[in-house]
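Session log. Operator J.P. requested a structure for one protein chain; no other inputs attached. Running the standard single-chain path with token output.
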Amino acid sequence: MAADVRATAARVLGRVLAGSSLNQVLPPALEKVDQRDRALLQQLCYGTLRDGPRLQAILDQMLDKPLRERDRDIQGLLLCGLYQLQGMRIPDHAAVSATVGATRALKKNWARGMANALLRRFQREGEVLQANLGPAASLSHPAWLHAELLNQWPGQAADIFEANNGQPPMTLRVNSARTTRDEYLQLLSGEAIEAHPGKLSPEAVILAQPRDVTLLPGFAEGLVSVQDEAAQLAAHLLQARAGERVLDACAAPGGKACHILEIADGLEELVAVDVEQPRLARVEENLQRLALSAKLLCADAGALQARLEPGSFDRILVDAPCSATGVIRRHPDIKLLRRADDIDKLARLQLHILRGLWPLLRPGGTLLYATCSVLEQENSLVVAAFLDSEADANESEISLPTAVPVAHGRQLLPTAQGPDGLFYALIHKSD
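Structure written below.
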């Protein structure tokens, strides 16, 4: 069974190396392994990808020539083997044996000798191979992102690298419409689950150790959801009030929309939009579990003027598609999948969405622009371009003491045991 788990991990990693998202390929793979092996499979995949750039640079030194594209699974297996030797408590002999044995499950017996030789060479020469790495690979970051972070955040880059390479805390959002944070902390204490309140959001609870969310007390009943503390700030910054119409323009998976509904009692309507129907289905699932109601609309957020009335919303949340460079620790495949030239493309998309949504906001209304990026090209520079293009758009001040002031908006940076890296900017429409 151990070889099967590693073979499954190799297939998942191989598909990510070929360009697929971990969120797409891991869930079905988890369904195919025994329940007792699922935690191991997750650790192998997430751990290997978090350390992927460094492991790949080590592997490149040992390979005489790159592996063929059709052997991405073997590449994934070798990276997974290196990760086990350095990042897990599995005895070295067991890690090598199980990894080599997985070549049979992958039906690639030709790779057996190669895998054995490479892993044993790493055992002998690991320190030398590590010493040969460049600065970016040593920090397990792609070279382009390493350079951007050093350039844009010279004083904070070391902390960002550390956060990106670590496991994120598991943070919950207490449903304040159903209970209080203190009451839920007492509920956790009664179950011997160690937790403490967050510092940024009044609904945030941070678990000392991650747990299966479905086993948390009150989860099925809608008392609590999983959401990073930085993301929980969106609903509070938007400040939706009773009687207002709210548009969540890029809503999936629905965490921010649900939070808005939890804390803003008496909204006239919340419309949640996403461009993909399967993603919108996740919003519906969250709404149902929390016993909340919203209108769901599958559409391009940048082309809603043909489907919604101009000036019909009091507040708009734009949680824009972005590079996700502020949440790499939660989505470590970003290190392999994201490219430098993606950033300008995303910035153009973000500006397109903002301009497309602006006519839907009533005079005197507020738009909250958010990303989970730490790069200025997607954040303050997009806001600057938007403000320059719309005469009735004015930036409003945001009070976030823990955030870094930037040219426009406020930037939260990821920290090892703290919140993710999110950007927020508030834009007011003149009366």
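Operator note: The two ends are 66 Å apart (CA to CA).
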